TrEMBL record:
The keyword Isomerase does not apply. Residues 17-30 have a biased composition (Basic and acidic residues). The lineage of its organism: Eukaryota, Metazoa, Spiralia, Lophotrochozoa, Mollusca. It is an enzyme of class 3 (hydrolase). Its EC number is 3.5.4.12. Residues 1-10 have a biased composition (Polar residues). It holds the Pfam family dCMP_cyt_deam_1. Its cofactor is Zn(2+). CDD domains: deoxycytidylate_deaminase (cd01286). Residues 1-30 are annotated as: Disordered. GO terms for molecular function: dCMP deaminase activity; zinc ion binding. It comes from Mytilus galloprovincialis. This is dCMP deaminase. Residues 38-163 form the CMP/dCMP-type deaminase domain. GO terms for cellular component: cytoplasm.
Amino acid sequence: MGKTNKSSSKAQKRKRIQDTQRKETKVKSSDRRKWHLEWEEYFMALAFLSAQRSKDPKTKVGACIVNKDKRIVGMGYNGMPNNCKDEDFPWGKGQTAEDNKHLYVCHAELNAVVNKIQADIRGCRMYVTLFPCNECAKIIIQSGIEEVIYYKMPDMPADKTKAEEKTEKIKATQKMFQYKNIVKLREYENKQEGETVFKIETKDSKCRVMISL
Ligand SMILES: [Zn+2]
């Protein structure tokens, strides 16, 4: 009995200390907004926002390049080359090779690199909504980007040959990046609890964007 009283008074004391600590923290951070976007969420959300500019009916990809000072130095999404009008080029896979979008579309990673606003992007990070293909992996390496954070792997086509082709491209990217650890590669991880929802809505509904990561 005595022992129980002793341990319960200890528990009360611990609770009092915790309450005081909580109060102090509350006072100190009373002006600070508790929930906010973490850096990683911010950059990945911008990549997703950028992807919404894409005209591709199937795959919309966005990329965001960030330097060591956490400044955004390049943004891109998958689209037709400059001055090649969207309406004059195919957005599907078509019946003939010529009608296949893959011959023309510039991937988000390529656009983010060529859109860069600082001459040298060596040592930068790239946030991209989809795992980079082998062609983009080469561009990323050549630009000197040292880390790629991707949101997800591409969906596999139902067609066996096409699925194999895609798998080979993924393997080639991994092989190049992992070779002497040229480019660090990691999947995006949500560090906040629950789902992150990034929402912008103006009062007059002229601009509405909602992104769930
Ligand atoms: Zn690519």
